[in-house]
Request: fold
Amino acid sequence: MFTFNLSNILVLTGIFFGLLAKTCVASHFRYGTMSWAAVPNRTNTIGVSVRIAYRANIYRNMRNEGQKFRATFEGFEWAVGTYRKQRLRTMTVSSGGLFDGWIYAHGYFEHTYSQSFVNSKSSWRVRLSGCCRVGGMRANTYKYYTVETVVNKAAFVGGLSGPSVDMFPILEVPRGQNTPLQISAFSPVDGLITSGAMTLKWANSAEMCRSHGSRCSNGPNYGVSALNSATGVATWDTRFLRCGNVDDPQCLSSTLFTGRCIRGVACPELNIPSVQWCQNLCDKYRNCRYVSYQATTKNCYLRRFRGRKRRTSRWVSCRKNRRFRKPCLYPMQAIVTVSKVFWFYAFVATIKVK
Reply:
């Protein structure tokens, strides 16, 4: 886990996020995506699929897969400027949607427009919006969010569907290198972004945060490059960000520290790709002070005390990285333009720099 003419764009929104009581303003929103399709054999009826990632337990009945809950902080408009905003209906915790501190949920809703409404429009916007983005980000904390799609009348009447996005809600990128960011989207008319039928740009602040637009930041504010309109790829030099590991661990080769492992964690941790990853695990636990790593078996020991040194082939040992900084989250949003049938679409995702 992105001023435009609404008649001819597809919007993709990539936003980085992270519990307040239900009676307070809720900083809970991590990710959102929405797609529409004409419902077969039902005149002027639209079906909208919504997927949202929330901070865990912001609502009741969202602790287990398959549980249903009412998303009271989200507002939904079937046609912006024509229909009043209503509360989002029942959402369901998705299969495999329970993660560390947050959940992924989905919902499907239908609505039938009047014939006079359809006759009077060439296109209209369907909008999901609410407050607030999670705190703890490097920008845009506690601000409004919006996920939109434009319904093209010709496509709707013709029984077609709108574009879709399938990106994981949290995308991790490493600190200390030039990292590619890939935006993935599909239009039933134009195909994938890489088909060449779409172009991309970073959204401006008003497109990201609506009423808070003048105070919103986006990718270019953090040093992300322009989006490649042919591939959907941008690059981000994360070497100078003040988060994540700032240097590699200083390790002693062929030495094994034999101190006791920290409590509450498997010892050894298996299948750890590198000593850097072993060091990163240690940095997450207060009682971890040293690590021992064996490259041949990919075994990682997280140790409370150093203990005795023992010379052993193919082992490295390290003191905890004192210059470690916690991962950080950045909000981003992009706009994708589609050239054939005119679409507008927004999605939200979370990216973590480690």
User: Anything to note?
Assistant: Residues 291 and 302 are 5 Å apart (CA to CA).
